[in-house]
Amino acid sequence: MRTGFIFGNRILDIVVVSLVVAQTLKVIFYFFKEKKLNLRKYLDTGSMPSSHSASVSSLATAVGISEGVDSVCFAISLIFSLVVMYDATGVRQAVGKQAVVLNKMINNIRKKENSVLFEENMKELIGHTPLEVLAGAALGVTIAFVMS
User: Fold this and answer.
1) What contacts 89, CB < 8 A, 6 or more positions away?
2) pLDDT by residue (tens digit) across 14-25?
3) Secondary structure of the chain: what % helix, strand, coil (to 5)?
4) 3-state secondary structure (DSSP) of residue 58
5) What CA–CA distance (Å, rounded) separates 52 from 58?
6) Could you tell me the residue ranges of all domains in the chain?
7) What is this structure's pTM?
8) Nearest alpha carbon to residue 48 among 77, 21, 87
9) 13: which of 66, 70, 117, 142 lies 20 to 30 Å off by Cα?
């Protein structure tokens, strides 16, 4: 694999490009859906596509291309990728659902008691749907192959 053009490390370049492309797509999709530009989406978690999945799948793919799919590095990066993607749809999705319930409870208390428990609501869009994770993974694999 050739030397990287951004960081001097081709695999790191692939991962960073995958992350930036995924986050850029979030901004674009939000713009078409809501008809307004929100550059904060570059830093947001959740929504389509999963940038976590894009980055870790591009990592595993680039390592597989560079080191071979029978290498220890590929095995480590593949397992790491699967854990991150499982976490994005499992644990983080559950945390987002819990935040929805907690926000409703807090808002009900605010209305009844006119008190402030928290200044702002908890972030609800933390995790990803399986489709968002799959789209991120497909994006990462594609970018790794294109850049390799």
Assistant:
1) 127, 128, 129, 130, 133
2) 999 999 999 999
3) 70, 0, 30
4) helix
5) 10
6) 1-86+130-148, 91-126
7) 0.76
8) 21
9) 70
